Amino acid sequence: MNNLNEVEQKIAESLLQIKAIKLQPKNPFTWASGWKSPIYCDNRITLSHPAIRTYIRQQLAQMIQEVYGSVEMISGVATAGIPQGVLVAQDLGVPFTYVRSSAKGHGRQNLIEGEINSGQRVVVIEDLVSTGKSSLQAVEALREAGCNVVGLVSIFTYGFDEAVKNFADAKCSFHSLCSYDALIKVAVSNSYILESEVDLLEQWRKDPSNWTGK
After folding, report:
1. Given the DSSP bridges, would you call strands 148-157 and 73-77 parallel, antiparallel or unpaired?
2. What burial class does residue 95 get, using C-beta atoms within 10 Å of its C-beta: 0-12 exposed, 13-18 middle, 19+ buried?
3. Half-sphere exposure of residue 62, counting CA atoms within 13 Å on the CB side?
4. The sheet that has 112-113: what strands, in order across it?
5. Which residues face 156 on adjacent strands?
6. Would you call 92 helix, strand, or coil by DSSP?
7. Any residues with CB less than 8 A from the CB of 214 and at least 6 apart, and which?
8. Residue 48, class by beta-carbon neighbours within 10 Å (0-12 exposed, 13-18 middle, 19+ buried)?
9. Interval 6-37: pLDDT, tens
10. What is the pLDDT of residues 52-78, one digit of tens each?
């Protein structure tokens, strides 16, 4: 299927099938940022589907081993990266931590929850990468705590140029099981969208902040 590998294709098919990803190019969603978007992604829905949840866990773990080798800790980005991270850490038999979006306002006022040791080789797990800013905040928090963050992996990425630049600027390696381009190919092939709608979807990916859907 147009240069898609088996994992990309299966992940895309699964996310569309369970409606973790919805495509509505002619009836766009409005994100919290105010952006109009033809796509909405909620990968937390995968947790309610054991077979898909297991496949994602296995593929994330395999990707980490193939790309980064041995790691000493998995860290999830709150909140959606937490359950995925726990599953992968369990699969790899390594410790798990997670990074809050902001420090707790009480108690020890932790930003990172769990036990960390300086110099640990860490891979960060995110469910979805858009601009990469929130993901990289977690990476920076772990680095400031003394961790050796070797990279970040996600289930899905929109593939924005801004995200590519942000990860490059942060000198952080990034890999995803499935991309926006792969998803669109699978969506057309399986009749989730029409071939005539692909241009609208490609326009959004190139300039999401100014896209209006017209």
Report:
1. unpaired
2. middle
3. 9
4. 112-113, 96-99, 73-77, 121-129, 148-157, 174-179
5. 128, 178
6. helix
7. none
8. exposed
9. 999 999 999 999 999 999 998 999 988 888 99
10. 999 999 999 999 999 999 999 999 999
CB 154 within 8 A of CB 182: no
Q: With 80 as the cut, is the pLDDT of residue 110 above it? A: no
pTM: 0.93
CB contact burial 118-138 (16+ within 10 A = b; e otherwise): eebbbbbbbbbbbbbebbbbb
Q: What is the DSSP letter of 176?
A: E
The one-letter amino acid at 208: P
* Distance between CA atoms of residues 45 and 22, nearest Å: 12
Q: 96 has which bridge partners?
A: 74
Place of tokens 């041995």: 70
End-to-end CA distance of the chain: 29
Give the Å distances, CA to CA, from 4 to 9, 178, 179, 183, 186: 6, 10, 10, 10, 9
